Amino acid sequence: MTVASDQTVMQLDEILAELPVEARLAFERVFHVSVSHGDLVPPESMHRWIEERFREVDLVRRQKIVRVTNVVTMEGVLFNWLRSARPIWRHELNLDEELERSDGEPFDTPYELTPEDSFGRVESKWCVTASNIAKFDGFHGLVIFKEKHPLRFTREQIHDYLNTGERWAALAHRADPSAKYYFFLWNCLWRAGASLLHGHAQVLLGREMHYPAIEYQRRAALLFEANHRQNYFDALYTAHQMVGAGFQRASVRVLANLAPIKEHEVILMADEMSDALKDRIYEVLTCFRDRLGVTSFNLVLYRPPLAPTDESWDGFPVMVRIVDRGDPTTRTNDFGGMELYAASVVASDPLKLAQTLQDALPE
What is the three-class DSSP state of 29? Predict the structure, then answer.
């Protein structure tokens, strides 16, 4: 089925109703979709305020909410397009000025002001590693970019940062063969959790099992395959593709997540840590920056272990997840009680995001 480019996630129930029965059943093995309506009665005194923000009072009187739940991983989201029009307090931000004021940060002179790992540093053309001074785990390093501005990156630099992380993981694994579970993360700007402005990523290598969210995903995927005789990640991609939220570029599957943790979440899946995957990472980040106006994001990369383990990782791909963390100038936090303990509340549209990504990522 070809999904019209003007369709939105708010019509997801209608899109599913038009699918052939077998396709709809395949989708429903991964996702549950339901619709509810919220009704309210605004006083006359609010009408002008509502019209200035939402165009029509009737759009507010009866609101459609689309709820999407990944029934395999139990990730869920509530969509209401009106959420994107809420009034939010903002102030001016000049990142170049902020970076100038931050001169003297430890990452400006990493050899003098950051520790190194017991196995030394990894240095490349565009970055150098350090040992994190306050560690999450036994092996926890930093990939410090030589380009200070976190939003100034090239294809070559993104490849270099990722390659350096892999080299760091190989050295950590050599130092302790029981450490096998690699995790790469980039928190861009304070909105995404970065404590320093200077561009940097973090790398971890865990022992005994992968970090809980990833281990849960692995177990859920195995259970799905046992129940349905199909690889979960294949089914996940197919579900996205049939409603216009997934496509492929070279050997990489690109998904505008239908159950995103927050705004504009993209999932990339590949069989290996290939140059094609690194290219897609660069292209998605460029799309975020140049087309969507994203300035703060989280990027994570995880993969099967670096060495054999007792548990099965058959069919588990290299996965990248990238999510927009919102405007760093706003006081409104994007995570609240719903996101922490219930389901994400998201204003961005995965189907529109998929269209933007398809236009931005060359074939």
Answer: coil
First to last CA, the chain: 21
Query: What percentage of the chain carries pLDDT values higher than 90?
Result: 88
CA angle 248, 2, 343 (to 5 degrees): 70
3-state secondary structure of 15: helix
Q: What is the pTM of this model?
A: 0.95
d(CA 124, CA 356): 33
Find, among 183, 357, 359, the residue nearest to 253 by Cα: 357
Q: Is 265 exposed, middle or buried (0-12, 13-18, 19+ CB in 10 A)?
A: buried
Rounded Cα–Cα distance for residues 47 and 45 (Å) = 6
Give the model's confidence band at 343: pLDDT under 50 very low, under 70 low, under 90 confident, else very high.
very high
| Cα dihedral value 163, 164, 170, 176, nearest 10 | -150
Average pLDDT of span 320-333: 91
Q: Could you give the angle at the alpha carbon of 131 between the alpha carbons of 126 and 134, nearest 5°? A: 130
Strand ranges in the chain using DSSP code E only, listed in sequence order: 31-39, 62-70, 75-79, 127-131, 139-145, 179-188, 200-207, 246-249, 252-256, 266-270, 297-302, 318-324, 344-346
Per the DSSP assignment, residues forming a β-bridge with 318 are 270
Q: What is the CA radius of gyration of the chain?
A: 22
